[in-house]
Design goal:
Elements (H helix, E strand, L loop, with lengths): L1 H21 L3 H5 L6 H8 L6 E5 L5 H9 L4 E6 L2 H13 L6 E5 L7 H5 L4 E7 L8 H10 L1 E12 L7 H12 L9 H11 L3 E7 L4 E7 L2
Parallel strand pairs: 1-2, 1-4, 2-3, 4-5
Antiparallel strand pairs: 5-7, 6-7
Helix pairs in contact: 3-4
Length: about 220
């Protein structure tokens, strides 16, 4: 427990240092290469009065878009960076959605939803370009699945391996991402399938934009 707490503290400090200034321009700059986020949101389709959790909510951009699309649902988000959460809170207030979106500071790989939000399960859990930033990313994905209600769905989109894009583009992209401590997970698709197999869950997965991104949906049955 102490080791986990220490790792979480180190990750929080790193993310705060990376995004202390970046958070102010994050949404403006990232919209050009965090591809597939809106596709994920469009496919969430929670129950009319459902509950949706985003792990690694950052600036709140995805939660705001989803709340506007699914007007009857309730939304929750957590992030390890207090700097990013400060921006998220301001964005949510500007959008007039503070009554429908609740935020908390926590580690996506080890969180207590009941303690944070007063509920222990969600109809939808999603992770958008977060697994490539979380060192214990497999644990984060498992924690997301564990937070699902029966019939709930875990949705993921993140960087792929760009296998059908020019090698120079791939090298330049990975070098750029490394500056922000982002590491595309080469075995993400396999890890998703393993998680689904472990829990006998339904799994759909694929790639987008010639391998630029990968997506997956794992449904608890």
């Amino acid at each position: 427990m102490d080791e986990t707490r220490s790792q979480s503290g180190a990750s929080a400090a790193l993310m705060d240092s990376v995004y202390r200034n970046q958070r102010h321009i994050y949404d403006l700059t990232r919209k050009y290469y965090l591809l597939g986020r809106d596709r994920l949101i469009a496919r969430l389709a929670p129950p009319a009065d459902g509950c949706v959790l985003e792990l690694g909510c950052g600036t709140g951009r995805n939660l705001i878009e989803a709340a506007r699309l699914y007007t009857g649902a309730r939304f929750y988000g957590l992030d390890i960076s207090r700097e990013m959460l400060a921006t998220a809170e301001a964005n949510i207030r500007r959008a007039g959605l503070e009554g429908r979106i609740t935020l908390a500071c926590a580690d996506a790989s080890a969180f207590d939803a009941e303690a944070l939000f007063g509920r222990d399960s969600f109809d939808r859990v999603f992770m958008s370009y977060t697994l490539s930033m979380i060192p214990p990313w497999r644990e984060a994905m498992a924690a997301g699945f564990a937070a699902l209600a029966p019939g709930g769905q875990l949705s993921v989109v993140d960087f792929g391996q760009q296998e059908r894009l020019p090698s120079l583009f791939r090298r330049l992209l990975h070098a750029w991402l490394a500056k922000f401590h982002v590491t595309p997970r080469a075995d993400l698709s396999g890890a998703v399938e393993a998680l689904a197999g472990l829990h006998k869950a339904r799994c759909e997965a694929g790639s987008l934009y010639r391998g630029y991104a990968v997506w997956a949906e794992v449904t608890r049955v």
